[in-house]
Amino acid sequence: MKKIYFYLTIISALILHSLSVSAQDVYVAGNTNDGATVWQNGSVLYSFGNYTGANSIYVDGEDIYVAGFKSISGIESAVVWKNNKEITLASITAPTTLPTSPASITAVDSWGATAVSVIVYKGDVYALGYTYIGYTDGSNLARLDYTAKVWKNGEELYTIVNDSYEPYTGMTWFYSPAISSMSIYNGDVYVAGFCPKGTVYSELEFMSLWKNGEPVDASEEYKNASSVFVENGNVYVAGYSSTSTGYGATLWTNGQPRLLYPSYSNATSSFYSSATSVFVQNGKVYVGIYTETGKNVNSTWTYTYTPKIWTDYDEINIVEYADNYTNVNSVYVLDKVYAAVYEYNYSPSYAYAYVWSNGELNDISVGARSYPASIFVTPAPQPVPGLPRQVTLKVSGAYESDVVTGIYFVDSGDSFTFTVKPKTDGDEPVVTTTRKSSAVDKDYVVKPVGDGAYEITVYGINSPTTITVESSSPSAVAGIAALKVYASGNAIFIDAPTAGTAQIYAESGALVKTVTYGAGQTTVALTKGIYVVKTGNTVAKVVIN
Length: 545
Fold this sequence. Notes:
With 545 residues, the protein is mostly beta strands. The protein is 1% helix and 59% strand. The radius of gyration is 29 Å and the shape is elongated.
């Protein structure tokens, strides 16, 4: 890629060079108080209304597909939304006859349908889902029958049948095939899930993979599958398998199991894990996992939940939560590793949705209850090669440079990098830019590079852009000698020899707070942002990162 260098005669030399930058669109489908919801780059794109739910998202060009359900009068129908248009896949009515086993069944408890996965393959829209019927024995659910289905372009393609299914003797709940995930390779449809085999509990086995509606393997090694991904003919299934001490996250590659995290349990501690999502890129496997670690101290158990990304070459702990249930619901890999992360607190009750990407965790919650079910990332539009973009750079006189202010040109999509050195020690530059903002990727980065200088990079210039660099130092802005105003952590500090009053304004000009301070240091806690502090004839601009 072409590089352009401008050398200056002073230490704050300006350097422009191209850097490959991704500005992907990150889509998440999930659920909020407003029903099924789609987020784009951290902001709500649209919601489908009350009594709807979203389980999966797929983006094909400009079209966004979401699989889920819509409930009318308590009865759920399986649907796929294409953008904001609803396509009903299946709806069922209550059965008129009851099963003969177990003999205690007296009534129908519930019935409906839902879609759990959607994929666009060669222009055709495939959806995976199921219909279900629940029966009661008068007070408890006595039997729950699933019928797993695959739809193509809104029409039923086939039903997944478990020929070995029979009701279990002496059990309360009864299952036929339950499914959770779909992948398509060379026109073949792979479905992951679980279903029972045998007639009594001691014979319980799980079969977790079907290809074009037919079972691939009935091995006892498959206990419960949450996700399937097929690349270059290799089939990867993620889920969990049971051990004598509990359950552990497991990855099956072409039917061969690998226990990722062995479970254990004793009087003082316990550990369990489960894999919820698998994504493969160029043979590298990424698995979304949650772990639960229990500690017994003085007969009191405490639990720590850790969402993780496991790969075949590394392991990443996203974040740890004490006593709050957390999970990685979906993983997607492009140039970065992305994950839809879920946090739930039992008391008080709330649920948060996050997007995690290469070390950054961004809260995309709406209200107090947000659940992210599925994530999909689209690549950035490719810039037109060689198309120049004008960059207007404005640098205040608080920095050692007399030539950086001016107009420059870079190729479309390239980054703009330069270095400044403040005249006042510790005066970190405040950067503003007209580059279109993104909720997922940073517009720019400011980092120290030694000798008091800072390197500033503005990413992905795709239109005429103005970059302004101003001082955060009160002395540089207003010539203050005795009074100091500066930011550190999540607070503004006012160091003053005498008492006074300060007004704090947001970048928009709105008054945020009026503070009366005394002689010495006064701390004002504020949220992330750029603020202007006025006290007497003094004006200072500060940044809380």
